[in-house]
Amino acid sequence: GENVAVFDRTLVQVDQNASVSIIERFETSNQKILLSSVTECIVGQNSHVKFLTTQEDGKNTTHIGVHRSHVYRDGSFESSTVSLGGKYARLRGEVSLLEQGANSDVMAVYYGDHEQLLDFRTLQDHRAENTTSNLLFKGAVEDNARSVYSGMIHLREEAQRSQAYQTNRNLVLDHGAHAESIPNLMIEANDVKCS
């Protein structure tokens, strides 16, 4: 219905030595809707999680989403996001690499047209040594659409011998469209590879 607010909460907990693949899909009508979603994933020791999220909201939807992942010793988290809809779609993705050997690969593709605003905020938080994160966001905007990517890599003092990479690529297809990238690094360790 019109003027509906939805507050969605998903918790995935994967115990040690397990493997799981998850698909999360958001789709709304063209009516005026507020969708606030929180998805949290806990990846246990030596476990592997593949997570796919698709967002195909209607043209009048405001979607504010949070994806938060905690990866433990030798765990692996692979995330893919496809963002296509919504009037205003904001996703905050946070990955915390909590113990040695934790690994994350985060990827997103997005496309905005008309008056859409697609807003992405990411955090790659390295809290232990020998952790690895790789992030790649690619998108295109046309008409008067806008995209904003703001990412933070935080390598804490205890994150020695860790690697963190962050890439955002944009394609602006019209003069009225705009794409903005704001990469950030906070490095407190002195034996790391980061870009």
Let me know the largest β-sheet.
7 strands, parallel
Helix content: under 10%
Terminal residue distance: 45 Å
Query: Approximately how much beta-strand content do the residues carry?
Result: over 45%
Query: Please, what is the average pLDDT?
Result: 97
Kindly provide the radius of gyration, computed on alpha-carbon positions and rounded to a whole number of angstroms: 17 Å
Parts with pLDDT < 50 across at least 5 consecutive residues? none
Classify the oligomer.
single chain
Provide an overview of this structure.
The chain is mainly β. Helices cover 0% and strands 67% of the residues. The chain is built from no helices and 14 strands.
At a glance:
0% of the residues lie in helices and 67% in strands. It has no helices and 14 strands.
Keywords:
seven-stranded parallel sheet, 14 strands, 195 residues, mainly beta, globular
Summarize the topology.
Blueprint: E1 4-14, E2 19-27, E3 33-43, E4 48-56, E5 61-71, E6 76-83, E7 88-97, E8 103-112, E9 117-126, E10 132-141, E11 146-155, E12 163-172, E13 178-187, E14 193-194
Parallel strand pairs: 1-3, 2-4, 3-5, 4-6, 5-7, 6-8, 7-9, 8-10, 9-11, 10-12, 11-13, 12-14
